[in-house]
Amino acid sequence: MSETELSPAEEAAFRERCRAFLEEHATGVGGGRAASGEDRGAGLMATAKKFQGALAEAGLAGLVYPTEYGGAGLTRAHDRIWRETYRDYPDMTSELTISHGMCLPVLNDFGTHEQKLQFLGDNIAARTVWCQMFSEPGAGSDVASLQTKAELDGDEWVINGQKVWTTLAHLSDYGVLIARTNPEAPKHAGISMFIVDMKDPAVEIRPIHQIDGGKHFNEVFFSDLRIPKSWLLGELNNGWNQATAMLMYERVAIGTGSSSGISHPNADRLINDAVKLGKINEPVLRQDLMRLYAEETTKSMVAMRTRAELKAGKAPGPGGSLGKLHGAKIAKMMRSITSAVHGADVVAHDGDEKLAMLSRSILTSFSAQIAGGTDEIQKNIIGDRVLGLPRDIAVDTKVPFKDLKVGTQRSAD
Ligand SMILES: Cc1cc2nc3c(=O)[nH]c(=O)nc-3n(C[C@H](O)[C@H](O)[C@H](O)COP(=O)(O)OP(=O)(O)OC[C@H]3O[C@@H](n4cnc5c(N)ncnc54)[C@H](O)[C@@H]3O)c2cc1C
């Protein structure tokens, strides 16, 4: 993953190659945006898979990953050009944010050569889709309190427990799971990471019905799920450090999106709408639109800094929380500004697709402040690890997990 400089001619040629591909494939058509409710996720996923398959065929998928593992074996300079070019086209791969933004880098960082040979190429080309299984009913912000357990039985791990809020589990082929492998150790020390086959009959996936009519995430139950011993991902009992790395990737993926450069798409769209609807001269609305414009500009600049750090070979650090927090703030601002521009039409519409989409985006905007770690947790991370403020008092970091009353483990009460 080097940042080899390209000559101006090489840069122009590669930009043209990206543009030609996007011109043909990034049409936005069939993106599933027109479909409503529960079909929407499947529609968007079908579009993402088709697009990614074509990208792989064109030799443009997984740009910085080695060809040995199904990547394109190119440099971060190529990746930057791709992102700059993609910025001007519809996002075709939003449903692959977890599979590519989080599972792929974690597989690459912690996977063995054999695991990478087996899984990376299919992931990159979206022949398989991956999900992330961290959260449990009793372990969200405090995910180290997780109770799903993995026990070694001969050449297999046996997994029992439950995960929740697993985005796209129902459309995924594999999952990255964290489970407890040593209950005698303190809670952060006895966790390991695994690869799980989501199609195994011992995995039960139950959809969670959302306020916007969709079923985007799920409860997942494991009942004596057996996986090969070799599907341990990374080191035994090092799962907490690996999970933290994955969460950093998650915040970067959420906070920076798939494009690069400065953009303010929501402000642009709403300013345009306000002009069309004759509301652009309303002083309070003008002020709010300007605040949104400034917030999106700031978020872009934070994302550019994060990408520059990645380009310089730095692992994503707690600064990723800043981008995630900006995204959540923008989602919150969008709620009131969209309502101010479009009025009651965003709620009481007669099926008009644009208004239906705005209505859905208002309803789903609340999740931005929770998914990938809540706003409060991001602020704690920024306080502790960026600003160097004193950390929260933790009384349970040296106690064996089995002696803690955490999650739903309260039988000793
Ligand atoms: C749309 C969406 C998609 C998701 N997708 C996935 C997924 O694919 N995989 C996955 O594993 N999980 C997923 N999650 C789960 C998500 O990571 C958790 O919901 C999140 O970490 C919060 O955990 P919780 O819901 O248990 O809330 P809790 O941790 O119970 O928090 C409840 C409240 O307490 C506050 N709080 C908790 N601890 C502290 C503290 N120390 N300091 C200050 N305030 C605190 C929180 O900020 C929050 O307001 C998803 C969630 C959403 C909304």
Low-confidence stretches: 31-35
Spatial order of strands in the largest sheet:
1-4-5-8
| Percent helix | 40-55%
* Most strands sheet: 4 strands, mixed
What is this entry, summarized?
By secondary structure, the protein is of the alpha+beta class. It has helices at 8-25, 39-57, 76-86, 97-110, 113-124, 239-256, 265-276, 283-311, 320-342, 353-364, 375-386; strands at residues 130-133, 149-153, 156-167, 174-180, 191-197, 203-208, 217-228, 232-233. It folds into three domains: 8-92, no CATH class; 131-242, Butyryl-CoA Dehydrogenase, subunit A, domain 2; 261-373, no CATH class.
Report on the structure:
The chain is an alpha+beta fold. The chain has 3 domains: 8-92, no CATH class; 131-242, Butyryl-CoA Dehydrogenase, subunit A, domain 2; 261-373, no CATH class. It is 44% helix and 13% strand. The protein has 11 helices and 8 strands. The chain has helices at 8-25, 39-57, 76-86, 97-110, 113-124, 239-256, 265-276, 283-311, 320-342, 353-364, 375-386; strands at residues 130-133, 149-153, 156-167, 174-180, 191-197, 203-208, 217-228, 232-233. The strands form 2 sheets. Strands 1-4-5-8 form a 4-stranded mixed sheet. It has a 4-stranded antiparallel sheet with strand order 2-3-7-6, with no helix packed on it. The chain starts with 7 loop residues before the first helix and ends in a 27-residue tail after the last helix. Residues 31-35 have low confidence and may be disordered.
